[in-house]
Amino acid sequence: MKQVLQNLKDGRTALWDVPMPTISRGSLLIETTTTLLSSGTERMLVDFGRASLLGKAMQQPDRVRDALQKVRTDGLAATLSAITDKLDQPLALGYCNAGVVAAVGSDVGSLQVGDRVVSNGKHAEYVTVGENLCVRIPDNVTDEDATFAVPAAIGLQGVRLAAPTLGETFVVIGLGLLGLLTVQILISNGCRVIGIDHDQVRAARAATFGASHVPAGADAVAEVLARTAGIGADGVLICASTSSDEPVAQAAKMSRKRGRIVLVGVAGLNLSRADFYEKELSFQVSCSYGPGRYDPRYEEKGIDYPIGHVRWTENRNIAAALQLMADGRLTPQTLITHRFTLADAERAYALLVQRTPSLGIVINYPQADSAGAKSNTTQIVAADSHAQTVPLAADNNAPVKGASGVRVNVIGAGNYAGRVLIPAFRSAGAAINGVASRNGVTAAHYGRKHAAAFASTDAAGLCASRDAQAVVVATRHDTHADFVIEALRNGKHVFVEKPLCLTYDELQRITKALEQARTAARTGARPEPILMVGFNRRFAPQVARVRSLLAPLAAPKALVLTVNAGMIPTDHWTQDRESGGGRIIGEACHFIDLLRHLADSQIVSFEATGFNATAPASCDTASITLQFESGSIGTIHYFANGHRSLPKERLEVFCSGKALVLDNFLKLRGYGWPQFTKLNLWRQNKGQEACVAAFVDAIANNGPAPIPLAQLLEVSRVTIDIAQELG
């Protein structure tokens, strides 16, 4: 299918062929008929992309501070790599989509196949959207009009926060698409509206809806005061998009005593205390479409807020905007300035770059045109709009066949898979056969970049593919076990990013599937499948040196590993017990494996102490003590309550009157070793490439698993035990 994507490096937009997305529980697959390009919001994205690296930095000072902090803790090379990789990822554009429901996931109850709906879906022939972000379109509202319901809901939420009453005077600063929709909503609410904009054409358009406007060159504050008999406006809605502080300053000066100011758009926030203090003004920033926005429980899991407690959610605001259209009180057709077909989407974005005056730019998706839409590049082969798999023509400079003869399919194309795992497999001499992701965009991006044969959203197909010997699983944690089992059933070698699984039941099912796969391999005279978990730290060069230094020493070892894990919000998916398993299972398993490797002995017991488990996130700060069969002991301090300026990982090893200290995989120092003092690196190396290389080598040479299966199962079992004890 076709989708509009932006290159963050230079701001260029292009029409890509990508696999059709898959639906999941609580979501819908929508066949798009019309999308709306918002000249305000999307121009900001284009301008950001077209800015130089310095320009981008100036627009995001918080990110600059984060980058400088990362340089101090992880080094310059790692930081530059992270920045360039981030800018290399394509951005899916659009948030105003109308179409027809093509399929529904489980647990969807309010909508069905064939319904016309509006959503915040992207500019793509098909989109998947959560149920709470989809609203049925009234019969007398066209698809073109319906796409305006999303920005209208943004304006409506701002109006609700301002709480206008019949007869009040409101000022709208900024008469772009959002501002003009807000003007109509306020007038429908019985308000007297004054519009302010430097563009007098837009101001005149506001007048057609019943608003008055401030003439060009006039003193806006004086005009508002004059029109309100010196009282001032009851409320001001700022719908402009600017970095200037002037809109907020103007709003304060033109408001009456105890007036209300709501920032719906974007403006500078260097406020004057005196302006607000003397009038006791209220100021509020409106959040997008309304309550539920950015709440994964609402948007992804479909958990609605009770209407008796939260009357207006983002879904209900969009529905209200549609009803205003159905009643004839909101007329989006008058705001459409340009229409394009999807094939000409790049021309639509060129309007933004050229600063051509525009408001609503509509993109239509005629079915007859979908097969003939022009591709973004000759590197992508045209694909059927319904296809879950898109063939990719390899870059002429990239070898398609790996030197090792090993071909792998990669399921999951997030940041870690794309930035670390896939390049590591290429470096190890493996060929990337196919890449799959849920939305298809990242699969197409990383597939092209690393010379994959195809991109897909059909994960099951990659598990069954005969063109690859191995499957790499790098998806969300709750899907690991099922993909591992499916790949093993198809006789594949499996590399799964940690954790192996989340529960005892999953561990048992994986063990059984592996036994069956090994039996089938022996029966068919094939190599037995290798199961590998991405416990890369044991493969780091400095860890290998520590291990070699400890090998001749028979005495028990004392191991202390301090991890400054950092805080992750409680609503992040890794904190969710169902999808992420919590951070002990999700990440601390790395460190349990590392100590198990260095002790070179089975874990016989453990103790785990953490904060009181009042919430899932309280379990991500804990001290874990491991007792090994050899008499060695290990302690992991996994803390999420430290400061980010402290480097993340520090390993201390004590044995036979000697000690070793490894700081954040950069500096290794030895104390009491006759022929060893230090091993320092210019760049962090946590062993990812060596870990992958060992897996590829084992497949290519029919060798043993790089990590013994017994250790993988042991570490997985102990990790689950510890997580359960901590709550």
Automatic annotation (TrEMBL):
The identity of this protein, by name, is Transmembrane protein
Q: Which cofactor does it need?
A: Zn(2+)
Does the record carry Lyase as a key word?
A: no
Q: Which residues form the Enoyl reductase (ER) domain?
A: 51-363
> Which controlled-vocabulary keywords does the entry list?
Membrane, Metal-binding, Oxidoreductase, Transmembrane, Zinc
The protein's matches in CDD domains, at most eight in alphabetical order, are given as:
2-desacetyl-2-hydroxyethyl_bacteriochlorophyllide_like
* Similarity annotation: Belongs to the zinc-containing alcohol dehydrogenase family.
GO molecular-function annotation terms?
A: metal ion binding; nucleotide binding; oxidoreductase activity
InterPro entries assigned: ADH-like_C, ADH-like_N, ER, Gfo/Idh/MocA-like_OxRdtase_N, GFO_IDH_MocA-like_dom, GroES-like_sf, NAD(P)-bd_dom_sf
Q: Which PANTHER family match?
A: D-GULOSIDE 3-DEHYDROGENASE, NAD-DEPENDENT ALCOHOL DEHYDROGENASE
